[in-house]
Structures are given as C-alpha cells and as structure tokens.
Structure to design on (255 residues):
DNA sequence: GCGACAG
DNA sequence: ATCTTGTCGC
C-alpha cells in the first residue's frame, strides 16, 4: 500500500484539492461492524518544530480484545504549516508512510481530529479514507468551531455537533434571541461521552462509516479512558519515535 | 479589521 | 501540537 502524496504549493491549491477529493467520500457503512472481529488502527503524529521534523505512528489493535497487533512509525520533514482546515496536508504524508509500513492493512482507521466536521466537510479522517480507500473515522479532543449541548453524564450519552455558521432552515420567525439558533445547524458529528462525568470527545465520520456506527466504534475502543485505545497507543508511539529521531539523527531516518 | 481556530 | 511539577482525587 504505497501512496504518493504531493504537497500543495499554496493554500488555494490545497482547498481546491479538498473540494475535488471530497466527492469520493462515502458515508455508507461498508466497513466492519462495531465489536465484530476486525483490526482497528490508530494513527497520530508528533512534531519537533525546532528541527522541522514530524514523526507518525500507526498501531493496529484487535477490535475485540484491544490487544496490540502491530506497530509502525515513519519520520520525515514537516511538509506543510498548521492551518485550521488544512491539517491533512501537514499530517497525512507521514501518517500514510507509517500506515504503509504495516504488514497488514487495518479494517478501520481512527484519526486524531475531524472528518466531516470541517469547514468544507473534508477533514483529516475523510481525506485519509479517500486516499487509502480504508474505512476511517475522526475523534477530536475539542469542538473546533462547532457547537453542541452538553451530553448526559453517563457513558454513551451524546449530543449533535452542529455547524452554527450554517444558515440552515429558517424555523419560524426570526427569534430575537439567537441563542437557540446556534444549535440548529447541520449535524456534522457528535459530542460523545465515553466515560461517566468526563469531558466528551468529538466524533465525526471519515469514509465508509456512518455517524452512529462511528460512535459505536469509539465506545467500543474507549472502555477505560476518555480516548480510544487506538489513539492512546498511537500517541505514545509517535512521541517515542520523535524522541528516537531527535536522539539519533540519521540512525533509522526515513526520507 | 478583529477574533476564532482539529493537531 | 508544544512548553511543564506537583498535586488533588478515586
């Protein structure tokens, strides 16, 4: 699974590419069912801005036991600056490299960040899904520019994540108090409570997975902590890979 | 113009 | 993302 990914020269080009690629996204469930026998990979990246280095990790887990099946890392130069809405161009080159080093492709990929919940409905998880063809979902730690009501306190509770900027339907006469209106936009994801009384995570679809299914996968992967085990494992590994790359420049360096 | 802004 | 010790709590 070797995928080449050229870096856009400008932000305009990056945006234009998102608008083209997003037409290939599928929101239908064609991936593994939550809790079914399958492998799920977590991917994440860590940066050393001083040296302009990025380290990525891909960790495959057994979806039922959550045991680690395989780990892979990749390091390289930072190819794109951080820009809200264009995160994929900064993270994907290294992430795709790490994914490609796995002996066996996963049945589902869990990304750090958003998928459909994005200004152009094409965040990191959707981008990765389209490029790899793999089912993918996004799990973010904060609501970005979106709004939501607080979910109930119990594990599994959720509330719609909506794009308040979206001038959706005009329900009734213009309410003088636009407060309620802020929650009436398009549902782009869900604020999902994975642990009782703990801050929710923000789930959105990426590719080949529906929103309800994406949430079920996240709950299945977050049995003990707020974040899915896939995210925790990948986060830990990419940080270790970054330290190794910083400590032994050239050692196991990769492009 | 100002503020907000996944990682 | 990253800079960073101890500390309060289950």
């Amino acid at each position: 699974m070797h995928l080449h990914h050229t870096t856009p020269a400008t932000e305009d080009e990056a945006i234009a590419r998102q608008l083209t690629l997003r037409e290939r996204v599928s929101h239908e469930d064609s991936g593994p069912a939550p809790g079914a026998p399958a492998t799920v990979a977590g991917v994440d990246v860590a940066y050393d801005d001083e040296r302009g280095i990025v380290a990525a990790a891909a960790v495959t887990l057994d979806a039922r036991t959550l045991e680690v099946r395989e780990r892979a890392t990749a390091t390289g130069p930072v190819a794109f600056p951080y820009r809200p809405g264009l995160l994929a161009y900064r993270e994907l080159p290294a992430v795709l490299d790490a994914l490609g080093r796995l002996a066996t492709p996963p049945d589902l990929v869990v990304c750090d960040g958003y998928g459909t919940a994005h200004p152009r409905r094409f965040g990191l998880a959707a981008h990765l899904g389209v490029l790899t063809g793999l089912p993918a979902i996004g799990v973010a730690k904060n609501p970005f520019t979106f709004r939501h009501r607080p979910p109930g306190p119990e594990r599994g509770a959720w509330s719609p994540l909506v794009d308040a900027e979206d001038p959706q339907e005009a329900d009734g006469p213009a309410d003088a108090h636009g407060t309620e209106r802020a929650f009436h936009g398009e549902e782009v994801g869900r604020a999902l409570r994975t642990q009782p009384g703990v801050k929710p995570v923000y789930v959105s679809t990426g590719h080949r997975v529906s929103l309800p299914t994406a949430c079920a996968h996240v709950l299945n992967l977050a049995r003990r902590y707020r974040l899915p085990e896939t995210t925790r494992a990948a986060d830990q590994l990419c940080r270790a890979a970054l330290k190794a790359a910083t400590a032994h420049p050239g050692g196991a360096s990769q492009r």
